[in-house]
Fold these 3 entries.
Entry 1:
Amino acid sequence: MASLQRRSGSKVWHCSFRGVDGRWKLLSTGTADREEAQGVCHRMATIAKEATPGPVPKGDSGEILAAGLKLLQAATAGELTEEVGRAFVDRLLTATNQDRLKSETTRDFLKRWLRSKREENAKGTADTYSSTVSLFLQAIGPKADRPIAGITKRDIEGFRDARKQEVGATTVQGDLRCLKAAFNQATMDGLMPANPASTVKKPPGTAKKRQHFTIEEIGSLLREAPSDEWRTMILLGAFSGLRLGDAQRLTWDSVNFDRGTLHFTPQKTERRRLEADLDPSEEIPMHPALQSHLERLAGDSGGPISPTLAKRQLNGKSGLSNTFSGIVRAAGIEAAPEGDAQMGKRRFNPKTYHSLRHSFVSLMAVEGVSPELRQKLAGHSSEKVHAGYTHHELAQLSEAIGKIPSPVL
């Protein structure tokens, strides 16, 4: 039976109990308060009573127990250090013939998490996650190759604060959403006791509004485009309303010159519609400028319409989005600063590739196309389009798109 004792010259209580090896132990409770010491002593005695050698050799079990009790003692006294903890873990690993704790490094886990995201999300979303993860791993340095359980709230906050000096608030908010999702998965997998990103505060800020390109600016973009593939991408955005990822992966099989249409599957709605057992494919009439351009490029090879660009990343320094920003600058379309440029903020360009999609709608509005037709064309909202539009519907939609003036090259 465990009991408390006072050793000569000591202000704290000591606990006397029988260890797993049958020998009596006398360990400090780390406290001079008798009631608190009784609680510590009871825990020590309980651990000793319930401890069994298991995979630990019998000759080592008493030593391991003693080391564990000293760990408890140090923690109770508020004197637990990393050195004390590591010493106990090292001794335990040696006794159980293990080289290291079963764990996963932050880098390995995040790479594995990204692979799962690429299977679950559209390419653009997965690329954004990949960019955030890459920047975070760079920010934490050597900790990237240490167990993920070592990542703390302070690491996340440090990354957040560094990013705030480079990009706008909404970009940082997206970074934090990505990390929160990743570390939440690590917590669910039992690799971390808690999600270190869950209580990190997001920087305040609202999204800046994107603007559309005028028909004159679209002409400038086409003239500054470095290749026919980029001219294809610009025309697909401006005259079909395609998003960057959809334009990038469009193939010649999607083009029907006889009907004058494009038939494709938007990544943004593909999974949602498949889950609802709906055909996710879409059909949209081609603008004369786009059809003329594609007819000039068409051949017998098939495959992606823009084969070189189809192999590129959407985001990142060498991504398509950044390249398009360069085309915008070359065309003389100025960017407006996001925040204070003197504080190191990245310049915010209100006219990105997605602005071409806004242009698609705005240019039809200028020409008097009804809101219903604009919504149908820009939203690609028909859920039974696999059967094809009727002749009347297709003619009506083609007329609406045809009202958009062709750019002057």
Note: The chain has 16 helices and eight strands.
Entry 2:
Amino acid sequence: MITSRNIVKKQRVILRPDSHRVVGQFFNPGNPERMHTIARRIAALTEIQSAHLIHILNRDFGKRHRFYQKMIQQHFNSFVKLFPEYELLPVNKKILIGAYLSKEYSFESTALMNPSMVYYDQHHRKSPSVEPFLLSLRAVGEGHISSVTFRSGTIRTDGSIRIEKKSMWASLPEEIIYPAEPGAPVRIRFSSDLPPSEKVIFPLTADECNGIEDVRLVRFINDNGSVVYYGTYTAYDGKVIKLKLLETTDFESFKIYNLQGAAVLNKGLALFPQKSPVNML
């Protein structure tokens, strides 16, 4: 195990934003009637025209997303909730509607900054000479909207740091569950086979629509010895800031809470990694 006797050395490890990495999002052209107009035009295409357009889409966009087909199917599902009559269309036209109601967002095209680091042994490979870690980063994209992304790496006994190569893809959560009652958390879940660098937590609610800023991760040890990871962050809607809390045990499933109280009035909030004794005199 790496001990406090080791000397920390400045490393020439530089993380740069990559404008080529994008996430796929549902595209709302302004109102439901405009979506309806797009769908009507697609429904009027011949099967030959539909097949040709799908070929172009797969060629130009299929390799830019790990789950491209699944993504556009989800976007069609969001559309058909408003217009269920389109459920009867042929498969190719459903795919086209989902694709036309999809957009790409370059989530780290502007900046990559403000990291925090925690010990995290993702693969459970204990080694006396290597300490694995997970790094959270504030990614600033188009329109100066911030989201959270991750990197993994190791620190060795000689003080050297190794950051694992980032994925060429980026993915949003595959499941988002909004609370049914006040005070309950938003729950999100990523696909279990994604590497950390591929996961992006994008603003999910109106009070953070202009950004999730500066996550401060901490590895928290409970009284029973179990470990949970918390991350306080600033939610910004363009006018007002709020403090929120990420909670996870595996960086796959997360709970997101609103924080309240006198201690959460400004952006400088962070947590201690363990509960303090009751009597501290």
Note: The chain has two domains: 23-105, 111-264.
Entry 3:
Amino acid sequence: MVTRVKPEAAAPPSNGQTAVGERATPPRTHVGPVSFPELVWAHFMWQQEVHDERILHGEAEHDFHRLLRHFEQAHGEIRNAYWCTREASAVAVTEQRPYGRLGRFLHLHPIVRFHSATHWVTRDLPEVAGLLYRCDAMAAKFSELLRHGSQHIAMDWTLAIAGRLLGFADNPTPRPAAEAEAVVESARAELDEVDDYYQRAGEATGRLVYFWGMMIGVAALGLIGLAGGLLLRSIGELDFHDAATQNLFASYSLGAVGAVVSVLSRMTSGRKGQFFVDFEVGRPPIRRVGSFRPLLGAVFALILYFALRSDLVQLGADSGNEPLEYYAVLSFFAGFSERWVRGVLSPVAQLAGADDPPASQPAP
């Protein structure tokens, strides 16, 4: 049974009596954080108090709501949960907005977590326990790697599968082996579907994180270029009206733009394998790698610009008379295609001895 219990319902009756019997409710305090297994045991004791002792609004209920308040303060509000009635076991999904009110004001994505305490009800059902552990492991990936709608879909889907498994395990009536096997196979097949959905959503999320990493890199390059230009101008080494300076900054900018366009064109090509991001390494590493992509394009463009200016390579123009558009186009292609710029700069590499084959060893 899926329930959502509001902490506000924990207020005891003003006259100190229950609906069925009377029980004193001494004030209690809890020191330290509340774990999910503690909360599950408190809920189970409350259910026993209601069903076995037939006491409403008793001591166990107040204990549960007190622990629930502490738990939600630390982990966020319980969005959905499944509580077993025969054993102290449950699964739940919590949602917590980071940084409190500031996170709400900035519309930050809430932190969604999956909580489980199921080993009591599944101690005699190892296959069901294995599937529930798989649900827990998959939910950890969803919490770390997915965001927004795809995360909620995958998390709620996993919770529904775990709740169905718990419902089967919590049934006091013995079930035939064939029925247990059918439940296990059905849950395993559905978890495979969730995993396929996770792979598709993870690839899309990884590309989006990589894109925003590139935008961070572009912003950082802009700040570096602006700071460097102002510094050189302040010491009299740079004139923004000079053609060479304009060509330099055009190469620097168009190289970064070419790198971004190259990645976007491969992302939207529709061909499988054209652009691959290992999204399971985590969002920060993907964002960090994406931020270096514009820097790489800018570096290639600047190297090509200096090679053209020093006459190390020539590409169909008279040295010293190239217009701004000439450097802009070549710099864009330098950032767009690393293979192309390596081919253009291969004579320079040969001149520097970078492509010399290793000396052959004398025959014995």
Note: The two ends are 80 Å apart (CA to CA).
